[in-house]
Design brief:
With 350 residues, this protein is α+β, with helices and mostly antiparallel strands. The chain has ten helices and 16 strands. The strands form four sheets. An eight-stranded mixed sheet has the order 1-2-11-8-14-5-4-3. Helix 3 packs across helix 6 and helix 4 crosses helix 6. The termini are far apart. 44% of the residues are buried.
């Protein structure tokens, strides 16, 4: 195992730069001009895969089918206790309930570290507007959270570290099941081994997301074309998205490189975790898997209440270590650190 890890870690070649990933950014920008990013959702089904099935081959086949068709899928029987998920959501709600100035002081945002609290700072290339949300990002690298662990709620750091361990294990299992067909040239376990927690190169991130409630008047005053999260692909290998039952808005679509793009809701499933392929795995797999578009729609006010309802979610991004080398046949090799830095700059630097 250790020899395989050394094989995946290196320096980017001299001509590599942090413009990597710009093809994906250009794709997102094209959605604004084409109108695809604003297209209404239809109702095709997002697959559900039961990971508790003892037939590993059947599970692998189901994951591959889901990942290569819709691209978004929900896993159940994944082994993360609902109590643990609920506790992390509780901690998230308690943090976001504080005043804005308190949150900003408790966990200052630093784009270069991909860590800390941000309030409506992320501008999607697909909209040119800030997402109507706030988030607290915890990146599992030795230095990334220094001075950024919030003192409230009590026990937040220990709880979050434990939750990230469970999320990491689930994401590693999914990568291992996809790897033989996605990256047939890899030694078994290469993808999972490239992702670690709390080392000097770690890039895996847990993002606590809060889409605040607002009055109908406030919602109407937002710039035209505002979304809770504009259409985008993720930067990572795979994303685990934890949702709360009864809180809607997430929608997905096949990558436009497939041809026609139809949007579908990814509604919360009791006991389920939504999963999608990210840009990093798309590159690593030479396009055998494509990262898929998703967005969070601004819901209509609740009937009789006149208020846009709240939404919380937790997104675990399985991002390879900074020094892990993404090697494929169709594009030049690049370290995962350089790849992610290019994507951060496209979203947070003006």
């Amino acid at each position: 195992r250790l020899s395989r890890r050394r094989d995946t870690k290196a320096m980017s070649p001299p001509d590599a730069d942090t413009s990597a990933g710009l093809s994906e950014v250009d794709l997102e920008r094209s959605l604004k001009a084409s109108g695809v990013g604003d297209k209404a959702a239809s109702s095709y089904a997002v697959p559900i895969v039961d990971l508790s099935n003892p037939d590993e081959t059947a599970v692998s086949d189901a994951l591959w089918d889901a990942a290569t068709t819709v691209g978004f899928f929900t896993v159940v029987g994944h082994g993360i206790e609902q109590e643990s998920i609920d506790a992390q959501f509780g901690a998230s709600r308690e943090f976001f309930a504080q005043d804005l100035a308190v949150k900003e002081a408790a966990s200052p945002f630093e784009a270069a570290l991909n860590s800390g609290f941000e309030h409506m700072k992320q501008v999607r290339p697909s909209t040119g507007l800030p997402d109507v949300k706030e988030s607290l990002q915890v990146t599992a690298r030795a230095d990334a959270m220094s001075g950024r662990w919030p003192p409230k709620p009590a026990g937040f750091e220990a709880r979050t570290r434990a939750f990230m361990e469970k999320s990491h294990a689930l994401a590693a299992r999914i990568l291992t099941l996809l790897e033989p067909r996605a990256c047939p040239g890899n030694a078994p376990g290469t993808l999972a081994d490239a992702h670690t927690l709390w080392g000097p190169d770690g890039q895996c991130t847990l993002r606590h997301l809060h889409y605040p409630p607002m009055s109908a008047e406030h919602a109407a005053s937002l710039p035209p074309g505002s979304w809770r999260a504009g259409a985008h692909t993720d930067w990572c290998c795979v994303t685990l998205l934890f949702q709360r039952v009864g809180e809607f808005g997430l929608e997905c679509a096949a990558n436009p490189r497939h041809g026609a793009t139809e949007w579908a809701p990814v509604d919360p499933v009791p006991g389920g975790v939504a999963v999608n392929v990210g840009d990093m795995l798309s590159r690593w797999s030479d396009g055998r898997l494509l990262s898929n578009l998703h967005r969070v729609r601004m819901p209509k006010p609740k009937p009789g209440e006149g208020e846009v309802p709240v939404r919380y979610s937790l997104a675990f991004f399985m991002q390879a270590d900074k020094s892990a080398m993404i090697q494929c046949t169709e594009q030049p090799p690049i370290t995962a650190g350089d790849y992610i830095l290019g994507r951060i700059r496209s979203n947070f630097e003006k």
